[in-house]
Every structure is written in structure tokens, then in C-alpha cells.
């Protein structure tokens, strides 16, 4: 019999390997009865029964309903006990905080939202996030937290969980985001770029675990999450997909990052607000003038005006789409996705924006790269980054670190640090 210490430290004996696999087969729905597990794994009936009993005693599996009979006694199904733990997701944007809690199967149990300026700095922001999380957890007491995911609107070193020179997040560079959450919840914490969470949320919504997809978030800033065969491509240091600071030819616009001519400084939401206000000062005839007089424009007002037919708003949105489409076309040639999803606040401009992106991508990309390409808008559901965060946590817990902690019944920061 494998000892608890052997399991705890992740020694990959045959017993440990088969036990882990059986839990994941049931969790993913690939095999949900003992006979199905035997067929998939090749293990004998007695071994399967022993491993299942172990998984039930540890707390990962439970008995379900009776399944369909193939001629004899109907087998009892097994279920993964998704209710035994919670995943906390904190999705931070430039001007808002969204938090949610999910079951271990990724189902969003509850969520909350508030406006917030992330430029207030990490300490105040994390305090605000914790307060919002606590308000949600109070409605769901007595269920342990198994992991926390934090999404940030800037470059993140995934290995350390630290932001790296984020242009719109003063005071966040190198900040240890992970530790406050580990100490508060005694659970492993993963920090990632918000575009990656959105890409994972799209994977979950499509139920396509092997999709090649680019999620382009175009709002105040611009970024992209890249999925290759369903896996996030972060690059060597986590900077993959940071297209907002690709240089646009012939542009001398000053970017918030301090450089000149970045895509974000030409096509980002804050750049459109800047250009609209300048046009209004120069006497442009537009319905946006009234909003500008009331104390400043927003990107949402520009996209709504574009949908309503305002000429200035349409021209600004189409300019953003053309320039963004040129950068996206380069990604298409290099990455060859099957799907491009346009999300963020700019996506609310609908076909005014999307049609221009499609035109530029198909004009500038190779025929083979666009032969089976779909370019579409996101569903614009505020829970998408929360679903994506739950996907990230489940992937890390059950695909990456499972052998390190499963004998203890639940993950902890200490178990994450033990080599597999």
C-alpha cells in the first residue's frame, strides 16, 4: 500500500499514477463508471475498484446514479465532488474590479463588481479586492478555498506572479501580488494577464480543449491571449500577446508607456477619446459634443454613437479597426489560428468595428492562414474573465500540480512548492 508520505511528496509509483488518472477521467467525464475506467486504463476490475475506493475515501469522488445497463446489472456512475472546494477569481481592469467564486468544475457560483481606478496602486487595490471577495464569500460559508486566480491589465511574469512595467498601473512594477492572497486564503495563487483569462474563458465556452485561438481585447488598452491547441502561449517571460505596444508605422503619437507610435496610442480606447475631443475642439459636427461638454467623453459613448450613425464616431472606430487589423494580420501569419475573437469595450461597436478588422486581416494575411479562419465578436459577458480564471486554476490544480498535493485532500501553498 502506498504510504501517505509517498503520495504527499508526489512519487510517481504506478499506484499514484493510476489513482490520479482515474480521478481526472471522472472529473473530465471521459469515464464515469468502473467498467468504463477499466476499458480506458486497461486496469483490472479489482485494481479499478481499489483505486476508486481510495479516491472516494480521500474525498475526490462520490457515488452517482446508476448508469445504463449493457446486459447485466446497471453500473453505478461516479462523480467528481466539485462542491468540496471553491476557486476565487479576481479580474482587475483599468477602471473596475470583478470577483467571483467557482466550484471545482468551473461553474461560477456567485460574483460581484465595482468600479475602481487601478492607478490607485497595489495596496489600496488589493484591499478593495479582498473586501469584495469577503462580501461574496459571506454568502457561501464553510466551503474551503482551494485556489485563487488574479487577472491584471498589464504584462505579468507568470512564474513569479509579478507585474512587469505595466503602463497603466503605476506602483505595480515588481509588486508581489501572490503573497497577500496566499496568506489570506492559505491556497495556491496564480496571477496572469487579463487577456489570457479571456482566451481561456472562450475555450471553456466553446468546449474545445484543442482550439487554436487569439482573443484580442481592445478597450482602453490592447492585448491578446494566444491559445495553441488549447494551451496558453505565454512565451519565455509571459510577454506573448502584448500587441498594444507594437509600433505603428508613420505614427508619432505618444503612448502611456513612454514610447512613440504604439498601437495602443493610435487604436486604443483612450486614444479615440483623445482624438474625438481634439476634433470637437476643432469644430466637428457630432453628437459627441454634448457629452464632451458635460465633463469628458468615454469610449462607451463613442462606440454607441458609432452604432447610431454619428460620422465622427464611425470614422474613429474604423480607424482603430484598420490599424488593429494590420497588427492582427501579422499574428495570423505567424500563429495561424482557427478563431479570432474581438472583445473589450471596442467590441461593443459591433459590425462597424468588426467588418473593418476582417477586411484588413484578409487583405494582409496569407491565403492559407485565412482559409479556415473565423473572426467574431465576444459574447460580451462580464463573467467571461471569471470563467477563464476558473479554467486556469483547474488546469494548474489538476493537470500541472495534482501529484504534489492530492494526498492531503486539498492544495496549499506549501504543497505547491514540493517538486513533483
UniProtKB/TrEMBL annotation:
InterPro entries: ATPase_NBD (IPR043129), ROK (IPR000600), ROK_cs (IPR049874), WH-like_DNA-bd_sf (IPR036388), WH_DNA-bd_sf (IPR036390). PROSITE patterns: ROK. Belongs to the ROK (NagC/XylR) family. Pfam families: ROK. SUPFAM superfamilies: Actin-like ATPase domain, Winged helix' DNA-binding domain. Keywords: Kinase, Transferase. This is Transcriptional regulator/sugar kinase. Gene3D superfamilies: 3.30.420.40, Winged helix-like DNA-binding domain superfamily/Winged helix DNA-binding domain. GO terms for molecular function: kinase activity.
